[in-house]
Task: inverse folding
């Protein structure tokens, strides 16, 4: 992170207390930050600025700019993420259409833009225009017949394979961290873990490019999760502009929480949903100030995206719906059924996906990431092309399923038999289904099975892949099928008891699009276990304010059903699979163990490695550091008394000793090391002492050996500790680190305690 050299031209005999060394107080890769220390550092800095601001106008200006820098940073993150999201949307749309054909006016137009200014389009065939040629028309000159179909089929598969190959190769060559959705890792990072490079420049560039390619290749994945990762990368990179955030890991975590909100805001065009998502699902520490800031940043991002207008319809999202027909109380029964389906599917999906990802980690499957992606893409493309509902991009499919049928719809789903009931409005009465609708139902049923199976294998491959869109698609298909079934029931049996009071013949009783919306919410809730943010995202996404109650009912049911089968959502499951040190706030600790059962050293272990406050030499300290791999050492009065003085971190000790040997006269291996406030007078012949009190934490957290483990876990969770010392009658007994707690919890749950990777 920081260079180890100090400022040039410093007087030789500098005392180590005068100015902090570069590098002291920073962290190694794959370590946990100390929230308490970071927060107190920031408080000191703030206090200093406030005190100085009373002295001069310049200092006052600095104090104002310091207070303003947070809001400025939010503005920049919003602008950058909004612009990137707009670019991703536009290019993904264009590349998806490229699999089907090309525009002669200019190859950079997608299908819709190509046919916009054409005069030859009819309303029924609005996507047919002479300027847009399918590959068959270009290669063999005709669009009809079986040979043309085969040409289009082959071109579709080839483009899909090309996009997927480019995506996985770029990820593999330049930024291995750009794969997956990124939400499990961001949750871990926000809980105080450090993964260097995960939110870096390369990851941002590669993730943006490969996300477009992966979405366009037709794989069953969405761009929503990765957009959160992209926004967090923007946040992290822009943090480096401001010293306040560059130097303080806890402050930077606050910015990343807000950036996660921005990610959802641009992914779904749902600024409030984004803030709630960050609060409910991703963030670990979320003070009120961060709430306001993320609200502001999400607003800026949504505004930026709106001014780019990627879909050309002045909406932020693809799935805006316009229907506002009321729903009846009895319809809550099918809505709750959809909730149960969503919960069952979510739980089954998590089990299946984790089992598959574990196979990928443990067997030879993991050695061939490129081959795996290509095989899955080929299978997806070959199976998807014959069915028009899987051939189109998943977001288009969802928007078609959410759509309510009007008189002017040309879609197969809306090809009902028109019964002459004249109604003044555009709202159509329930009508009998034609053979085309039944055909569409069959195709949708096949699409449902296909999406359910293929998504299990797709999520977790070495390409950027989000989970929101595929799970919404599964739910939307199931909901639309149920909705059409209900509609036909109501049409043919409107004299049944359940329909009698509210569904007269010729009325528009049932809206299949609403069922699709509710189903999408239920499945998304079953997979991710979101509740509040899910409902808000859904009604911001679709603009259906009247449907909050159905959405709430479905989301709640799906969460209850899924939680009854398996406690954790997909992100927690992936965190545990990868062994990240994440203390889940939702997990209850119910065992009756005490601190002495978890602390190290255990009974059979060698005694705890400690530093004494005044009896060690530089050489002793260096030996202790080289012979052990701990990240810090308790400081005691003496080996005999074991009374606790403080705690010193390994990294700070190493940097200070190196620096002192370079810069301070007379520091040799036999110099005494003092952690006390005053150094006793030295004999004239002895070498100069080394004072290290400045790098020692004078207030380490301690618990007694009889503290129940549930309280210790709570302290770690709420304060974000790295380690905690265990004492008995004031004497030091041992140490508990975050890793020890995670291992202990894994053991108690009969899991392999060595699956937790990092310290």
Result:
């Amino acid at each position: 992170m920081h260079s180890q050299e100090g400022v040039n031209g410093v007087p030789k005999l500098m005392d180590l207390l005068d100015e902090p060394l570069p590098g002291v107080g920073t962290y190694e890769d794959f370590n946990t930050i100390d929230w308490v220390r970071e927060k107190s550092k920031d408080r000191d800095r703030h206090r200093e600025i406030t005190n100085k601001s009373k002295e001069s106008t310049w200092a006052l200006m600095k104090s104002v700019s310091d207070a303003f820098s947070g809001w400025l940073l939010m503005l920049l993150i919003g602008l950058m993420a909004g612009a990137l999201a707009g670019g991703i949307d536009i290019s993904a749309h264009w590349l998806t259409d490229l699999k089907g054909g090309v525009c002669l006016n200019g190859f950079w137009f997608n299908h819709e833009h190509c046919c916009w200014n054409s005069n030859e389009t009819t309303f029924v065939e609005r996507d047919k225009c002479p300027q847009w040629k399918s590959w068959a028309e270009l290669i063999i000159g005709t669009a009809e017949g079986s040979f043309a179909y085969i040409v289009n089929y082959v071109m579709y598969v080839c483009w899909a394979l090309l996009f997927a190959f480019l995506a996985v190769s770029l990820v593999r060559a330049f930024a291995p961290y750009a794969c997956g959705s990124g939400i499990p890792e961001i949750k871990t990072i926000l809980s105080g873990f450090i993964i260097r490079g995960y939110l870096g420049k390369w990851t941002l560039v590669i993730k943006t490019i490969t996300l477009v390619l992966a979405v366009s290749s037709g794989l069953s994945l969405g761009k929503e999760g990765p957009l959160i990762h992209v926004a967090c990368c923007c946040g992290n990179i822009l943090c480096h502009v401001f010293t306040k955030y560059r130097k303080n890991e806890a402050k930077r975590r606050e910015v990343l929480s807000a950036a996660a909100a921005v990610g959802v805001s641009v992914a779904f065009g749902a600024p409030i949903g984004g803030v709630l998502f960050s609060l409910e699902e991703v963030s670990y520490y979320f003070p009120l100030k961060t709430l306001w800031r993320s609200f502001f940043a999400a607003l800026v991002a949504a505004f930026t995206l709106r001014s780019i207008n990627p879909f050309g319809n002045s909406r932020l999202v693809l799935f805006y719906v316009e229907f506002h027909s009321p729903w009846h109380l009895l319809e809550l029964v099918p809505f709750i059924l959809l909730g149960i389906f969503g919960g069952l599917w979510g739980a089954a999906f998590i089990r299946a996906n984790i089992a598959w990802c574990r196979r990928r980690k443990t067997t030879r499957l993991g050695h061939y990431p490129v081959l795996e992606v290509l095989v899955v893409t080929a299978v997806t493309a070959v199976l998807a092309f014959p069915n028009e509902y899987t051939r189109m991009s998943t977001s288009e499919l969802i928007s078609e399923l959410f759509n309510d049928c009007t008189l002017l719809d040309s879609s197969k789903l809306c090809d009902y038999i028109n019964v002459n009931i004249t109604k003044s409005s555009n709202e159509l009465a329930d009508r009998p289904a034609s053979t085309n609708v039944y055909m569409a139902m069959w195709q949708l049923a096949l699409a449902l099975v296909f999406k359910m199976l293929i998504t299990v294998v797709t999520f977790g491959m070495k390409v950027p892949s989000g989970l929101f869109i595929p799970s919404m698609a599964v739910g939307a298909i199931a909901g639309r099928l149920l909705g059409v079934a209900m509609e036909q029931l109501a049409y043919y049996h409107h004299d049944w008891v359940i329909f009698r009071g509210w569904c007269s013949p010729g009325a528009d009783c049932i809206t299949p699009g609403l069922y699709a919306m509710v189903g999408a919410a239920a499945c998304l809730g079953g997979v991710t276990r979101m509740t509040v943010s899910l409902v808000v995202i859904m009604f911001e996404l679709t603009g259906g304010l009247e449907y909050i109650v159905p959405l709430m009912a479905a989301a709640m049911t799906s969460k209850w059903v899924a939680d009854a089968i398996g406690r954790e959502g997909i992100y927690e499951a992936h965190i545990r699979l990868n062994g990240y040190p994440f203390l889940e706030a939702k997990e209850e600790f119910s065992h009756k163990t005490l601190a002495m059962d978890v602390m190290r050293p255990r009974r059979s272990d060698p005694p705890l490695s400690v530093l004494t406050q005044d009896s060690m030499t530089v050489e002793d300290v260096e030996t202790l550091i080289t012979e052990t791999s701990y990240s810090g050492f308790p400081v005691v009065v003496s080996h005999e008394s074991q009374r606790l003085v403080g705690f010193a971190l390994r990294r700070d000790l190493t940097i200070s000793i190196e620096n002192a040997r370079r810069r301070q006269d007379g520091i040799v291996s036999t110099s005494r090391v003092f952690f006390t406030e005053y150094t006793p007078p030295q004999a004239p012949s002895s070498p100069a002492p080394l004072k290290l009190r400045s790098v020692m934490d004078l207030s380490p957290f301690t618990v007694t050996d009889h503290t129940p483990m549930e309280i210790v876990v709570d302290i770690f969770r709420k304060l974000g500790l790295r380690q905690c010392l265990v004492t008995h009658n004031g004497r030091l007994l041992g140490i508990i680190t975050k890793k020890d707690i995670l291992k202990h919890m894994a053991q108690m749950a009969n899991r392999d305690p060595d699956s937790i990777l990092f310290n």
Notes: Residues 1-18, 422-426 have pLDDT under 50 and may be disordered. The two ends are 19 Å apart (CA to CA). The chain has 28 helices and twelve strands.
